[in-house]
């Protein structure tokens, strides 16, 4: 209650501030500086050189990758949102409280399983002589190439973010006022129309945020596009890992990373302002 | 909604859809478990036969053991550090109002929203520049950044369930700020503190991207898995996946149990001396 | 009870940023008294109590406890235990451990702690619950634990912040008895903050009435009830027959006041200093008003129209209004007294009262 800063208060508040300034904020700021450094004889030198920016942004390969990444993530956000909605709606409105608690618990489990192992598993399912094609061959179908395609990338992206999208949608659906739904029925709004005209607008914030998180997660993922999509043409995150691990072109990787951050900030800002925009004045 | 407004067909349809969703989520997890016990190198249907040879192969691989050791060291140090820092930040948010608090909270909570490739690159470049990269402690530094927000969120949630006059009541009964911290705040948060320890450890256990960037030669187990993924097909991934899954699930279930027993018997939680 | 001051509030002001929570209070709390601080929410009563406990620091002025300035004394170094509105029992400790808490904080040795905890558990009749979780107790039992926890250090003063507000009516009355008996037996000072008039008036030796960060009146319950000092106090106590106007004549212990509803006589009493032309306000309590169909020959009288009737057990309260005077009026009568009157809404009746029944508010 005292206004003055006490040793006691500092003991608890400062560690987080110091750690995140030193090891979270500083690296991100350093990334900006790094993007202007120059590389000579495979060595990086501090510099103020816009060369990396013009080189990277001047190449068609970069813009192809950029477009591909944005489209893939946007499609993933839409597909995940559409596929997750019936699931989260069912959990929120059709399950008993006990079943709902279990469903939520089950949805949390994937966060603590290795994403890599799950991607590897999908390779087993999707490869040309994998489980699915073997099953289809028995009834005389296929083989359908599913690995190393955009379909494979989508499966990987859904593996990554489907549970999160369901949970985020779920938490906004649970808090939709049930009397609003009864009022809609009472005003002769049909079952399906009530979902579209009452439930979804009421849960708008959660639905938009869920799609946004799906976009952010897939935008930065390099595992699915590489191991399920084949990595060719590359996405931005594959470009970053390639550029980083092959030699000392870190400044160029920094340029790509900063473009990604700028894109994400724009998308996040647009999504959040759309989510919280209110009708009327 | 009252029962008579329900349509049985829609209800069952949605429930079936929920089951299918879970099938999609758990199919790869279950498959990796099943194939880890399958004798064939190249997984296919029908199954080749039960075998533990891949477990033996993994057990005999010194590289796996080294990775596991790195993972464990990282996980333990990260969970202790991240929980301590997260607790401080949660308490700060609970108790104090100060200029610049939104910035403080943003710093404390934003790291999980930054894509891991970007975080990994930034960490690698920054830590290399100050000669801290390529060691186990590089992974630890990076993982604490990523895990502290989770610890903070879990403990903050617990603090919001606390009667705000509890701390003032302790002062009023003669406890100094430090004593009230020790005898009231910490005991109240104890389940959340343990939950945060387990959850952050589980997050660190599974994290591969940032670790891949900064670990150098000191690879953790998930980074090794990433290496296997680049190489030839090997059921060893399934074995390691099954193992990591069991460890993580144990931690999560423990955390869940702790968070569930809210006002458990004070005998267990309340003996302060 | 003595008249010696234990606590003195000396020109105390409390601001939260721009908001003036306590405008300026000067009063004393006497050693061994049961003092109630009463007012509606936001009047500054709780802030006043929290300043005494050291949970808020006064912006200006001085608080003295036993003659010593305590403004800057941290709350944990004052022995001013408080019973909280939420009770603030530690949910992770047993009943015994809750009661023991302040003894442990004061580093009292174990055997002595044991002895004093046992004594207080016994005294509050909660020995059988000693090892229970506080969450599993009833409201009344929790109340006793909170009291024992605060009193176990045997302090000179106990602060209570609306401790009974969560209880049902029956338990409330029972706990009121427990509190008054306890205070009398221990002989220590109780400072009791409440918004409930019945709690304050049934337990307290003296009552402080606060409004908008200021003290409106201090006195014993009978005094305040019979002679409210200001219009606020009169309204707060539920009097509705409040008349404001100007003095036309004064003398011989009588005073005549012209109001928009007519001229009325009153006994000057406490307001001897009033002279011609002064503003004056008086109240007439609702049980001292007579109702009749015709204008009575003597005394003050006023015509009003009936708004409605409210049954309160053996009596009825008739609500009336006099639009010309801007007055809302009430009369409380037994059912027999009302039999011969037409009390349908809109009906006209005469109100009358004797000059002695009018109390002039000295603070207006």
TrEMBL record, chain A:
Keyword Transport among record annotations: yes
Topological relation to the membrane, as annotated: Multi-pass membrane protein
ABC transmembrane type-1 domain segment(s): 66-273
Keywords from the UniProt entry: Cell membrane, Membrane, Transmembrane, Transmembrane helix, Transport
Spans traversing the lipid bilayer: 12-37, 65-90, 102-120, 151-175, 195-219, 253-276
CC annotations in GO: plasma membrane
Compartments where located: Cell membrane
Superkingdom to which the source organism belongs: Bacteria
Predominant location category: membrane
GO biological process assignments: transmembrane transport
Similarity comment: Belongs to the binding-protein-dependent transport system permease family. CysTW subfamily.
Protein name, per record: ABC-type spermidine/putrescine transport system permease subunit I
Organism: Mycoplana dimorpha
From TrEMBL, chain B:
Record's GO cellular component terms: plasma membrane
Record carries keyword RNA-binding: no
Residues that span the membrane, as ranges: 12-35, 72-91, 103-130, 136-155, 192-217, 237-259
Domain ABC transmembrane type-1 span(s) in chain numbering: 68-255
Keyword Transmembrane among record annotations: yes
Pfam family, one: BPD_transp_1
Membrane topology type: Multi-pass membrane protein
GO biological process, any: transmembrane transport
InterPro entries for this protein: Bact_Polyamine_Transport, MetI-like, MetI-like_sf
UniProt keywords, alphabetically: Cell membrane, Membrane, Transmembrane, Transmembrane helix, Transport
Location of the protein in the cell: Cell membrane
Family, as annotated: Belongs to the binding-protein-dependent transport system permease family. CysTW subfamily.
Protein name: ABC-type spermidine/putrescine transport system permease subunit II
Organism listed in the record: Mycoplana dimorpha
Lineage: Bacteria, Pseudomonadati, Pseudomonadota, Alphaproteobacteria, Hyphomicrobiales
Automatic annotation (TrEMBL), chain C:
Example GO biological process: putrescine transport
Domain of life the protein comes from: Bacteria
GO MF term set: ATP binding; ATP hydrolysis activity; transmembrane transporter activity
Keywords on record: ATP-binding, Nucleotide-binding, Transport
SUPFAM superfamilies membership: MOP-like, P-loop containing nucleoside triphosphate hydrolases
Pfam families per the UniProt record, alphabetical: ABC_tran, TOBE_2
Species the sequence originates in: Mycoplana dimorpha
Domain ABC transporter: from-to ranges: 7-237
Protein name as catalogued: ABC-type Fe3+/spermidine/putrescine transport system ATPase subunit
Annotated family: Belongs to the ABC transporter superfamily.
GO cellular component: ATP-binding cassette (ABC) transporter complex
SMART domains registered for this protein in UniProt: AAA
PROSITE patterns: ABC_TRANSPORTER_1 (PS00211), ABC_TRANSPORTER_2 (PS50893)
